[in-house]
Structures are given as structure tokens and as C-alpha cells.
Design a protein that fits this description.
Elements: E1 2-13, E2 16-27, E3 31-35, H1 42-49, E4 57-62, E5 68-71, H2 83-88, H3 92-109, H4 111-114, H5 117-136, H6 142-152, H7 169-182, E6 187-191, H8 199-211, E7 215-219, H9 223-229, E8 232-237, E9 240-245, H10 248-283, H11 289-304, E10 329-340, E11 343-354, E12 358-362, H12 369-377, E13 384-389, E14 395-398, H13 412-417, H14 424-432, H15 450-463, E15 468-472, H16 480-492, E16 496-500, H17 504-510, E17 513-518, E18 521-525, H18 529-544, H19 567-588, H20 597-628
Parallel strand pairs: 3-7, 3-8, 5-6, 6-7, 12-16, 12-17, 14-15, 15-16
Antiparallel strand pairs: 1-2, 1-4, 8-9, 10-11, 10-13, 17-18
Helix pairs in contact: 3-5, 6-7, 8-20, 10-11, 19-20
């Protein structure tokens, strides 16, 4: 049974029709990717589904029992709210039940209710009903789960009380993500959830979504995440949605096949139309006029079922050329330390880069990846140590944010023409390969979108013909087709490259050596990202052991009468179960647990079982104390 149904949805912005006749459904527990080019209407569709914007036509139906949560691309939380409190507030149903419990407790304690047996019985009956719903909704584990989610997203205990307003955009986005995940909705709408996440946090999110019990509709340029999490793909193009079975990689193959079949059908129809028109033209006025008239009827039937010409999408056409080869040694770093305002970012880094190597650069945000690239590019000087480039090396650096290397006041055309002996006509033709056509070339850089700035930065880079590429998050702001075009060009590049990226799809297809920057320095792994991850997972399992895989326990009812158990016996049971609960809570706070969906589910049930048993034992303890009196 569908949990969300969309029927004939239409939505326009000004005179532009963004969505037209969109129809699809989302089954309970189904995880679906929504893909499409930048500007195709993905965010518009999510906002309509979330009820934030009204459709011009059509209907969105959510199952009566279902609740929905939406994570937008831009954080919207109030700046003064503390991180933990903001995240807890996302579980509105649980917080409402909790507030009602506190209100009922106060009423039961009030003399006018406490001294009136009939009114007290009525309030206690409601209290028991609300308490049951609160327990079923996970109220007793809410704060633990909030802290677990925040921990998985990189927050430390000291961050829980910090106001949202002091956080960077990336950390505010993580807080919003934690809020959406904690609500455990039946339908979760995620709009670019991996934006601003480092690689470790993205992997944590991937594991969490794999274990998530509800339905998800995910907009993301992270192809690795889509392959790992989703089982169906919705392609939004020209305002319409087309469904494909399977994750992103399957969708790519199926879409190519559908496009091939449509092209063939269109070509066959064009041949048939040409044949009929030729016959009609030749024989309409002759002895075969009757046959020609018959052909006109056939042509009319064919025209009525005309197949639209396949639309050829504009694609970024990137071709990387390299300067003459460098010497075998491209770069050598010796005991390099870099500090800013007395704070060390890199300490004692020693490594060598050789010609033709394809290196992936990993590490958490702020670890020093960008600094390392800028040191090699010669844009920063080391505080200590030396950075030496080899013979004939021509390095070029692409910054994580293109605004760092582009002049916002120049036009697109002038930004490329500056310091280059090229004619404007040559540059305009060249820029067309990066999807800057017509009047686009006269736009000021400040008016460009993030993706357009990134494409312009790449266009400038390629004109310089470097033989050492230093790329800092080169796929930032690029949609999937542009990422694929860049990836194909990088795979053909004959020079040396170092790529700092959270794009695991790109890493997997490019890098054969991985450098990881963290608080301990720079570690060097000769192999692919997948091989590094497999080795890391094996090492984590050997070091930490394996959490118990026991099936979920059935809650034990405390059925013995109060007289059969002493106060000390019940207190001892409470202490033992609290230890069991705390052990389960420790596992729930470990992001690696969520790599195994069964283990994560069993551990959560173990924790909730312990909480239920504690409630029963504390009630029994109160009975024993009352009996003493």
C-alpha cells in the first residue's frame, strides 16, 4: 500500500512550467532516488510534497497514519536555539505526549483532583493511555537517540548546548539533518543531504538510511549513496517524472537503452513518413491517384501517432590536455608544518608524488586537505620544512569554492580572456563546451550559480594545460551529468593529479593511491578507496569485537506480587537492567553499528526492552514502599 501518492501534479514559477502531469507513488519502507539536472524542478517537487508550496494542479495524498519530514538544502532553524534542544524538538509527536504527561502529573498532584477519587481515576486513566503512547513512540529513548544521531553526524558533547547561530552553514545543515532523522517519520524527503558532510559522516548517513524503517525520497548528486541506499529511481526531465527500477547505476543503463529504442522508433517512423510522402507526391495526379489517396489516409494515421524526436540534452564537453611530461618526481614534501595564527594545521608531513599518479585526498572537514593542496601548488608557504616541485612540473589548483579564484565583477567572457591571447569568438566557442551559450557569456560572475562558477573555473584551468592537477572538491555544485563529463575527462588526463573529494563515485574510478589527512598527520595507502574501506572495516571489527547478534528480547513482565520480592531484590534487578541499558546505549552511539541493519535494529530493541522493564520495576518498587507504610 502506498504511503505517498502523487497524481497529475503541476507547478509553475512565473511563466515557466516546472512540473506538469507528475504522477508516482511511494511504498512504505521504499527508498527512491529523485534525479535530474540542476534547475529541473527537484526542489520544487519536494517542497510541494512537504506541503510548503501548493500545486497549481493535481493532488498529493499522504496515508492517514503517516507522518512526513523534509530536509531542505538551506538550514532554517532559529539561531538562538541550542543544538540538542532543536534536534529534540523535531520529534513533535513525542514532545507533545511528554508535555501532556507532565501536565497530567501536575493535575494528579493538585488537591482538587488528588482528594477527589472520581476525578483522580479519570485523570489516571488518561495518564495511563498517554504513557502507553509515549512509550510506544520511543519517548524514553528519545534523548539517547538524539545524542546518538548527533554523534554520528560529528557533533561532540560540548556542541549540544551551542546555539545554532554560531555554527557554520555545514554544521547547521547537520543539525537539521539530525532533527529530521530523530523524528523517525514514515516518509523522509531529503534534498541534497550530503552537502557539507565529510566522507566519514556521509558513510554514517548511508548506513543510517539503510537501516531506516520508513520510506525515503532522496535528491542527491552522491551517486555512491544512491547506489547503496535506493532501489528505484525517478528521473525528472522537462517537468515529467519517469520511473526506473533499480538504483542509480541501473537507471543509467536503462535510460540509455530507452533512449536508443526511442531513437530507433523515431528513425523508422521518419522513414515511413518520407516513403508515404514520396508516393503521394509522385502519383497524386496520375493513374494511381486512388492509391495515392489511400497513402494519404495512411500518412494521417502515422502523423496522429507521431513519435517525438528524441531530445538531445546539452552536455558539458570536457577534454583535458597536458603540457609536456614532467620528470619522474613531481613533488617532494619534507617535514612540512603549516600553522595559521599559531594553530598547527599540518605537522611534519613527508611524502613524494610521482609522475602519472592518481591520488585521492581524504580527511574530515578542517583537517588540512585544502592547505596541503595549496602548499603543493605554491599558493602557501610552509611554516617549517620544504616543498619542492620536480623538473617541468606545471601545477594548477582548483579551489573548493570557485569564488576564491574568480573575480565576481568580471563577465564570464572577460574572466577567460584575461591574460590569454585569444579572440572573443574563440572564447565563446570554447565556453559553449561548458554550457555557456548566447548571452550567458556576458553574465557577471557574481550572478552565476555555484555549478556555473565551478564550470567556469574548470574552463579556465583546462586552457592552461597543466601536467599536475590539484583539485579541491571539483564536483561541488555540479549536477550528475556534469560530474560524469568531468570524471570521463579526468580518467583520460595523461598527467598527475591529486583530488580532495567526498565524491566516492569519483574516487572509486580515479584514485589508485589514497592519502588521509587527520589529527595524527598524513597516512599513505597504496590502493583504491574500496580497498582502503575494506581494510579499515576489518581492522575496526578486530579491534572492537562484534556486538551481540542475539534476537530481540521479549519484554519480561514483572508478574510476581509485591510480597514475594523484597525491596533489595527489586533494587538489585534495577541496577542490573540499568547496566544492560547503558551497554546498549553505548553501542547505539557507535556509528559503525549502523553498517549492519540487523544488529542496529536488535540493539535498539534491546535498549527499549530495558527501558520498559525499568518502568515496571520502578512501579513495583513503589508498591513495596507503599506496603511498608
Amino acid at each position: 500500500m502506498p504511503v505517498l501518492t502523487v497524481t497529475d501534479l503541476a507547478r509553475s514559477h512565473a511563466d515557466l512550467e516546472v512540473l506538469r502531469g507528475v504522477s508516482f507513488s511511494l511504498e512504505a519502507r521504499e527508498r527512491v532516488a529523485l534525479v535530474g539536472r540542476n534547475g529541473s524542478g527537484k526542489t520544487t517537487l519536494l517542497r510541494v510534497l512537504a506541503g510548503l508550496d501548493a500545486p497549481d494542479r493535481g493532488r498529493v495524498s499522504l496515508a492517514a497514519w503517516a507522518k512526513l519530514a523534509y530536509l531542505p538544502q538551506a538550514p532554517e532553524g532559529e539561531a538562538h536555539a541550542a543544538v540538542l534542544e532543536h534536534v529534540l524538538a523535531g520529534a513533535t509527536d513525542v514532545r507533545t505526549l511528554e508535555a501532556r504527561l507532565r501536565e497530567l502529573e501536575q493535575r494528579m498532584a493538585a488537591p482538587e483532583v488528588h482528594d477527589d477519587p472520581e476525578r483522580l481515576a479519570t485523570v489516571m486513566e488518561e495518564y495511563a493511555h498517554v504513557h502507553e503512547h509515549y512509550e510506544h513512540a520511543g519517548g524514553f529513548t528519545l534523548e539517547v537517540r538524539a545524542k546518538m544521531v548527533l554523534g554520528g553526524l560529528g557533533f561532540r558533547e560540548g556542541d549540544w548546548t551551542r546555539p545554532l547561530g554560531v555554527l557554520s552553514g555545514g554544521w547547521r545543515m547537520r543539525a537539521e539533518l539530525a532533527r529530521a532523522l530523530l523524528g523517525e517519520p514514515d516518509v523522509l524527503l531529503l534534498d541534497e543531504p550530503t552537502n557539507h558532510l565529510d566522507l566519514a559522516t556521509t558513510e554514517w548517513l548511508e548506513a543510517y538510511l539503510q537501516a531506516f524503517p520508513g520510506a525515503c525520497l532522496i535528491v542527491s548528486h552522491d551517486r555512491y549513496l544512491l547506489d547503496a541506499v535506493t532501489s528505484r529511481t525517478l528521473d525528472l526531465e522537462e517537468g515529467l517524472v519517469e520511473s526506473y527500477p533499480g538504483p542509480y547505476s541501473t537507471y543509467v543503463a536503462l535510460k540509455a537503452e530507452r533512449a536508443r529504442l526511442r531513437q530507433e522508433a523515431w528513425e523508422r517512423q521518419q522513414e515511413e513518413i518520407a516513403r508515404l510522402e514520396d508516393y503521394i507526391r509522385r502519383y497524386k495526379a496520375g493513374q494511381r491517384a486512388a492509391q495515392a489517396h489511400s497513402r494519404e489516409k495512411m500518412l494521417a494515421r502515422v502523423e496522429a501517432q507521431r513519435v517525438d524526436a528524441p531530445r538531445r540534452e546539452r552536455a558539458m564537453r570536457v577534454r583535458l590536455t597536458s603540457a609536456p611530461g614532467s620528470g619522474r618526481l613531481v613533488a617532494r614534501l619534507r617535514r612540512v608544518t603549516k600553522a595559521f595564527d599559531g594553530r598547527r594545521v599540518l605537522t611534519g608531513v613527508t611524502l613524494e608524488i610521482h609522475r602519472g599518479e592518481r591520488i585521492g585526498l581524504l580527511g574530515p572537514n578542517g583537517a588540512g586537505k585544502s592547505t596541503l593542496l595549496r602548499l603543493i601548488a605554491g599558493l602557501e608557504e610552509p611554516t617549517e620544512g620544504t616543498v619542492t616541485l620536480g623538473t617541468g612540473v606545471r601545477p594548477r589548483y582548483v579551489a573548493q569554492e570557485a569564488t576564491d579564484v574568480l573575480d565576481p565583477e568580471r563577465t564570464v567572457l572577460d574572466e577567460v580572456l584575461t591574460d590569454r591571447p585569444m579572440l572573443p569568438e574563440q572564447v565563446r566557442g570554447y565556453l559553449g563546451r561548458f554550457l555557456f551559450t548566447g548571452e550567458d557569456v556576458f553574465k557577471r560572475v557574481a550572478m552565476l550559480s555555484g555549478g556555473e562558477r565551478q564550470r567556469l573555473s574548470l574552463a579556465k584551468l583546462l586552457l592552461d594545460e597543466p601536467n599536475l592537477l590539484l583539485l579541491d572538491e571539483p564536483t561541488n555544485h555540479l549536477d550528475i551529468p556534469a560530474r560524469e563529463a568531468l570524471e570521463a575527462a579526468l580518467r583520460e588526463f595523461p598527467g598527475t593529479m591529486i583530488v580532495a573529494t567526498h565524491d566516492r563515485y569519483l574516487l572509486e574510478r580515479l584514485a589508485t593511491r589514497i592519502l588521509t589527512v587527520d589529527a595524527d598527520g598524513v597516512s599513505d595507502f597504496q590502493g583504491t578507496y574500496r580497498e582502503l574501506r575494506e581494510r579499515r572495516d576489518r581492522g575496526a571489527g578486530e579491534a572492537a569485537g562484534t556486538p551481540p547478534r542475539s534476537p530481540a528480547r521479549t519484554p519480561r513482565q514483572v508478574a510476581a506480587p509485591a510480597a514475594s520480592l523484597t525491596f533489595d531484590q527489586v533494587a538489585a534487578q534495577i541496577a542490573a537492567i540499568e547496566r544492560e541499558r547503558d551497554e546498549a546505549a553505548a553501542w547505539l552511539g557507535d556509528p559503525d553499528l549502523y553498517r549492519d541493519r540487523e544488529r542496529a535494529t536488535a540493539m535498539r530493541r534491546r535498549y527499549e526492552d530495558a527501558e520498559r522493564r525499568l518502568v515496571e520495576l520502578y512501579a513495583l518498587l513503589e508498591q513495596i514502599e507503599a506496603g511498608r507504610g
